[in-house]
Amino acid sequence: MEVKSKLKVFAGKWLVTRYFADKDGALLAVGKGTVTFNPINENELSWKESLNINWKDGGAKKAYASYTLKYDNDSISKYTKSGKLMYQLLYSMDDKEAHGIHECGKDSYASFFKFISEKSFIQKYDVVGPMKNFTIESEYIKDLAGKVFDDFDLNSDEVLQ
Q1: 8 Å CB contact between 8 and 2
Q2: Residue 153 scores a pLDDT above 50
Q3: Which residue in 25, 98, 134, 159 has the most C-beta neighbors within 10 A?
Q4: Are 115 and 95 in contact (CB under 8 A)?
């Protein structure tokens, strides 16, 4: 698939479930919400996230983030809201996987994407640094029906399936 066409796959609204786990794989938190990729122009998409995160210890918080995905130099890159390059996606030969690495001070965020279909993908971050050692795994499903996640219980079977 042409690189520029890969950018178009992201366009639209997605339901996301995000799992935070420690270095040993123990679940720390689960977040659910939406991510919207809206066209800015033919080479850029805004990436806006809104999640409700429930921590294993009972705490909860709302989280918001904004990024930009940009097609340039025959690749797709992720930028912060302020325009700083986070990483360039490097795709596998079969286009089913991509990865990029973001350095933030002494911390490293290795991002791995697995494209299941045009309606589903997984993104995993391996986060390491002097005070960090955890993973964040997000499951994205294209929102074709306008569904919005309701509040949920971290210990419910629904979340852990």
Answers
A1: no
A2: no
A3: 98
A4: yes
In whole angstroms, what is the distance from residue 40 CA to residue 88 CA? 19
**Dihedral pair phi/psi, residue 81, rounded to 5°:** -60, -35
3-state SS of 42-92? CCEEEEEEEEEEEECCCCEEEEEEEEEEEEECCEEEEEECCCCEEEEEEEC
Residue ranges and CATH numbers for the domains of the chain are: 3-160 (2.40.128.20)
The CA distance from 4 to 41, in Å, is 12
- Confidence (pLDDT) at 161: 26
Q: Assess whether pLDDT exceeds 50 at residue 156.
A: no
* One-letter amino acid of 108: S
pLDDT score of 158 more than 70? no
